[in-house]
Design a protein that fits this description.
By secondary structure, the protein is mainly beta. It contains five helices and 36 strands. The strands form six sheets. It has a 22-stranded antiparallel β-barrel. A five-stranded mixed sheet has the order 3-8-9-6-7. A two-stranded antiparallel ribbon has the order 1-2.
Length: about 650
């Protein structure tokens, strides 16, 4: 850490003599809900482009999100929809996940399934760090992930791909997009199957996307988006039996199955009536269906049995007005209505932790509504960007809550140095699961609240960009599992904090053939009541991403991660031999490589061959305690364009 800071301090005085290299900066929409160049925004945001996804050969969104400073992906060892995504020490349900601006966090537990969303139709992913409840509301304490799908362009695009690998893994996809006159469209379909391991079970998943956009008159545009994804898991792995190696393991018969499907649809009308005013009206619908039919080890006196069904939905209506009183000033005023419904019915023995025969559990039939108005002013003048906003929300568990945020950025042109900082508050309502879960539900839970600060320095020198960010978040009434073995339930633990440093060095087109990215995150978390760290937050992470294009038509990527120790708060859990499982999980490292090649022969000009190998050195490690990672695994195939 000290070395990185020293390099930045050393290089800043030299930057005034550095050669300026002009690059096209991407335009982002997530930071302020309006389009702005990423090098002008005052928020901490990163963009994963389509090129990044293709070069890394990332099949799923949780894969794509790995390697971002301040962000940690925790997986169950293989292809699994319930990967956790933590941003700056936040919890998984503190991260709002959107597809084309539509929320996909499930109302039952307020988390998003990212391990079963395939990437073939995705144009880019924008990752917004820090608390942004001021414009996004609940679930945005830790950050926002916006998955943006492809849309049709003047040049039609069609492709088909097939890949296969070990662990009985197969992937197929079809995609087509184009534009006829003023109507643009895109449609994509992909499927992923994997045999899995003893810890993950068999997985099958589909992703289907569609988008159409066309003008309505001279000043209006109508857009319809539809996005569907599902999974089917058999012989699944569940908590909480332990083998002799302290691994959580539950091997279920082939008749056991978990099925989930998510479908979102939205209709958006945008009108550009005046030079000083435009607005959009968006109506969206989220539908989620979940079925579990699971039976545990029949040799046990009371094997685990779960037979449940959940049907959840969300309707959202949002009106956003953008006013331009001055060419440097944008005022945004928005209104949002959000209605959620959860229907959940279960027959199981989870309430007794598998110590009794199964029985009917309390059903959940819950509806809740939130209403909000938000304001934001975005001001750009020469080298200064200033954004301030506030949201007033009336939601579950809180009444007319005021949620502010402000951030600013300033560029020193002579030194090519940019400094930015921000402050914001956040709020997060207790989820339906937190309130009514048959095992740990607690109807007395209060909403979680946050207050966060950040400041960063960015330095550009020739082809290099260096950035260091300090962040701090104070959390109040954080909801966690009680670690009291006699009283297992969700509780407000009082107060906690997360703080740390993100440092990143990025070099583009070095020697015209090499990109290098090095990221480091130091993270400190503390439950201030228990005086313990928060669970599953590594104390440090180091990411490297090296991309080489020096050989004609060949791209080679080497990516690695070193994750520091993390704390697990359940010391009362034991393995089959009665030994306590460790509280501190050890450091681990993993290396992945990917390569793609386009043949030179004219007959194969639209053909691309690719191969990726994950966990190259066959390391054994846990991202979530008890669930071993997959060993070395590979996937290779062919993509053909038309």
């Amino acid at each position: 850490m000290n070395i990185i800071l020293f390099l930045i301090l050393l290089l800043i005085p030299l930057s005034s003599h550095a050669e300026n290299v002009t690059t096209l900066e991407p335009v982002v929409v997530t930071a302020s809900k309006i389009e702005e160049p990423i090098n002008r925004t005052s928020a901490s945001i990163e963009v994963i482009t389509r090129k990044d996804i293709e070069e890394k050969i990332d099949e799923r969104v949780d894969e794509t999100l790995r390697g971002i400073s301040g962000l940690k992906v925790l997986g169950y060892g293989g292809i699994n929809p319930w990967s956790w995504v933590l941003i700056r020490g936040s919890d998984a349900d503190h991260v709002l996940v959107l597809v084309d601006g539509i929320e996909i966090n499930d109302p039952y537990d307020d988390t998003a399934r990212l391990g079963n969303i395939q990437t073939d139709s995705i144009e880019r992913i924008e990752v917004l760090k820090g608390s942004h409840s001021a414009i996004y509301g609940s679930e945005a304490i830790g950050g926002v992930i916006n998955i943006i799908t492809k849309e049709g362009k003047d040049k039609a695009e069609s492709n088909i791909s097939f890949r296969g690998g070990n662990y009985e893994t197969y992937k197929e996809s079809l995609f087509h997009s184009g534009k006829k006159k003023e109507i643009s469209y895109s449609i994509g379909l992909s499927r992923l199957d994997a045999g899995g391991s003893i810890y993950t079970g068999r997985f099958s998943g589909n992703t289907l996307s569609g988008k159409i956009k066309f003008p309505v008159g001279d000043y209006s545009v109508l857009q319809f988006n539809s996005f569907y994804y599902d999974h089917d898991m058999r012989n699944d792995t569940l908590c909480c039996e332990f083998d002799n190696n302290s691994n959580l393991r539950f091997t279920l018969p082939d008749s056991s199955v978990n099925r989930e499907s998510t479908w979102i649809n939205s209709l958006q009308l945008s009108q550009y009536l005046k030079d000083w005013w435009d607005y959009r009206i968006q109506v969206s619908r989220y539908d989620f269906n979940n079925t579990w039919k699971l039976e545990g080890d029949s040799s046990l006196p009371y094997p685990l049995k779960i037979d449940n069904k959940g049907t959840n939905s969300r309707d959202v209506v949002e009106i956003q007005n953008n006013l331009y009183p001055h060419e440097k000033d944008t005022l945004t005023i928005g209104l949002q209505y959000r209605g959620e419904k959860v229907l959940y019915d279960e027959f199981s023995n989870t309430g007794s932790m598998g110590m009794k025969p199964p029985e009917k559990q309390p059903s959940i039939n819950s509806s809740r509504v939130s209403r909000a108005v938000y304001f934001q002013n975005l001001f750009n003048y020469k080298n200064l960007t200033f954004t301030a906003g506030m949201r007033m929300e009336d939601g579950p568990g809180f009444d007319k809550e005021l949620i502010p945020r402000a951030s600013a950025a300033y560029l020193f042109p002579s030194a090519n140095t940019r400094i930015k900082g921000g402050y914001g508050k956040g709020i997060k309502a207790a989820s339906i699961r937190h309130l009514y879960d048959p095992v740990g539900g607690n109807r007395d839970l209060k909403p979680e609240k946050s207050e966060s600060y950040e400041i960063s320095v960015e330095q550009r020198i020739n082809r290099f960009r260096l950035e260091v960010t300090y962040f701090y978040t104070a959390l109040k009434d954080l909801i966690e599992w009680s670690t009291n073995p006699d009283k297992i339930k969700f509780v407000n633990i009082g107060s906690a904090h997360t703080k740390g440093v993100e440092a990143e060095v990025y070099g583009a087109d070095i020697l015209d053939s090499l990109d290098i990215r090095l990221g480091y995150t130091y993270l400190e978390t503390r439950d201030e009541i228990r005086d313990k760290p928060l669970r599953y937050r590594p104390t440090s992470s180091i990411f490297t991403d090296i991309r080489y294009r020096g050989i004609d038509r060949l791209t080679l990527i080497i990516a690695s991660e070193i994750a520091g120790e993390f704390y697990d708060p359940y010391p009362f859990l034991k393995d089959f031999d009665g030994n306590n499982l460790p509280e501190i999980m050890p450091v681990y490292k993993v290396v992945n490589i990917a390569a793609s090649y386009k043949p030179r022969h004219p007959s194969f000009k639209n053909v691309e061959l690719d191969l990726k190998i994950n966990n190259l050195f066959n390391e054994t490690y846990n991202e979530i305690k008890g669930f071993n990672s997959l060993g070395m695994n590979f996937l290779g195939g062919i993509k053909v364009g038309f």
